[in-house]
Write a structure and sequence with these properties.
By secondary structure, the protein is an all-alpha fold. The protein contains ten helices and no strands.
Length: 203
């Protein structure tokens, strides 16, 4: 490799490493201070770099916060349609949905608690939340394929929900026990009533 090409490669590697260091620091600041507290100055201090270095990589606070959100979305592993692989019945899909979402809530509860009211007030977070809700609504719809009873859809929206999960955990149920309880209740509801037109549901 020519000296100039080698030098450019080394520089690109250093730039990439610095960017990762800044994002790591920003995630740490975000975890402690929330979105509003994730300022260029605080992130620079946490990353042990100059504020100008942060702005060289992220021209605006929103771009920095977007990098934090992108990192977190990757880390928290939002459930997708793969959760339904191998399911061949409504009961199996409802159980797969409940298990995936309750496991997701378990590993992300601190982030949801941290975001709180900031979701509505911070545009980057509001967009991420809207994207998340659309993705989960798609899972709800797939779980309810063939179910025309809107009561079942409403039950899914109410029971496969962070607040329901939190309440069951606070009552002393394990993740597995909470999953079984809700999945069994949803399956019973799906079998109990005659099928009718199902309304759209939202998480």
């Amino acid at each position: 490799m020519a000296p100039r090409a080698y030098s450019m490669q080394r520089r690109a590697e250093r730039v990439a490493l610095t960017r990762e260091r800044i994002v790591d620091a920003a995630v740490d600041v975000f975890a402690r201070r929330g979105a509003r507290g994730t300022t260029m100055t605080e992130v620079a201090r946490a990353a042990d770099v100059a504020t100008a270095t942060v702005t060289n990589h992220f021209a605006t606070p929103d771009l920095l916060l977007q990098a934090v959100v992108d990192r977190l979305v990757t880390q928290i592993q939002i459930p997708d349609h793969a959760i339904f692989v191998g399911t061949r019945s409504t009961a199996a899909r409802l159980r797969a949905l409940t298990a995936a979402m309750f496991t997701f809530y378990e590993r992300t509860n601190r982030w949801f608690a941290l975001l709180g009211a900031e979701i509505a007030d911070v545009p980057v977070l509001a967009k991420a939340d809207a994207d998340f809700r659309r993705a989960i609504q798609g899972l709800y719809a797939q779980a309810l394929t063939g179910v025309d009873d809107d009561t079942v859809g409403k039950a899914v929206a109410g029971l496969v929900h962070p607040a329901t999960y939190t309440t069951l955990r606070q009552a002393g149920l394990t993740v597995s026990e909470a999953t079984d309880l809700v999945a069994d209740a949803l399956t019973h509801q799906a079998r109990k009533r005659p099928y009718r037109r199902r309304a759209d549901v939202r998480p």
